[in-house]
Design brief:
Layout (H helix, E strand, L loop, with lengths): L11 E4 L13 E4 L4 H12 L11
Antiparallel strand pairs: 1-2
Organism: Brassica napus
Protein name: NLE domain-containing protein
Subcellular location: Nucleus
Amino acid sequence: METASEAGMSNTVMCVLTDPEGTHLGSSMYIPQTAGPLQLTQLVNKFLNNVTPSSFHLF
């Protein structure tokens, strides 16, 4: 049986990114626990194909 660290999931969190209206921006995914605002903003903008950066809120 494979452990979480062997599967490459150590120090990650599962999240679902949503837009301000609550629409999911893809399926749930694992991201590094150390991901900060810059990395999360880049991820959201990639999903939205934005040229202008979007902001987001953590709940």
